[in-house]
Specification:
This protein is an alpha+beta fold. The chain contains eight helices and four strands, in the order ααααααβαβββα. The protein binds FE2/S2 (inorganic) cluster.
């Protein structure tokens, strides 16, 4: 009776009144709903952990495999979730602290959720002297965020990068790895709109 009743309530909250007529008190119904949501959460979480393990296991026998595994996880999820780092630590037989140290040492990895498009601004000296700071100011103003932040719509994150080897036209930004060279503050709104309209 309880499971059926819960099913009915989840589909149509107004039916809660009918369930109370079957002898279930409101508290029982709410408890059943919480238990059901917890089990859904655990099933989904289990699925995600299996997925992390699968991604990591492909690299455990490879030299430098941890870095490659982190790249694979980040390509899939946009960042390195804590559970994935723990999974990697277990697979590579190192401590979680060591795995976390690697994840946070390299600027190309992020342990925080990021936007769909990661904009990186080169902060190496040649780009810096050619106006990278002004481009940063324009990006921050257009997106309403500071460097290191993610826009409210979840589309853009702003990060720094070192030289990306495109120094012939400066300053340089990359968007999900694609370089945009010789960017001026005036180019910023157009570049962002181009990405938004993709
Ligand atoms: S210094 Fe900025 S791309 Fe090389």
């Amino acid at each position: 009776m309880g499971g059926d009743c819960l099913h009915i309530v989840l589909q149509n909250p107004k039916s809660m009144v009918a369930c109370t007529c079957f002898g279930l008190r409101m508290g029982d119904i709410l408890r059943l709903m919480v238990l059901n949501l917890k089990s859904i959460y655990n099933i989904q979480r289990g699925g995600v952990l299996v997925e992390y393990k699968k991604l990591v296991d492909d690299y455990t026998s490879m030299p430098g495999g941890l870095i490659e595994a982190f790249h694979a996880i980040q390509n899939e999820h946009g960042y390195l979730p804590e559970a994935a780092i723990n999974e990697a630590a277990e697979a590579f037989k190192i401590s979680a602290a060591e795995a976390y140290g690697v994840a946070t040492f390299y600027s190309m990895f992020s342990v925080k959720p990021r936007g769909k498009y990661v904009i990186r601004i080169c902060r190496s000296a040649p780009c810096h002297v050619e106006g990278a700071q002004e481009v940063i100011a324009a990006l921050e103003q257009e997106l309403g965020i500071c460097m290191g932040g993610t826009s409210n719509d979840g589309l853009f994150s702003l990060e720094f990068t070192e030289c990306v080897g495109q120094c012939q036209e400066r300053p340089v930004i990359t968007i999900n790895g694609e370089p945009y060279a010789g960017v001026t503050p005036g180019d910023v709104p157009g570049i962002l709109n181009e990405i938004r309209n993709k």
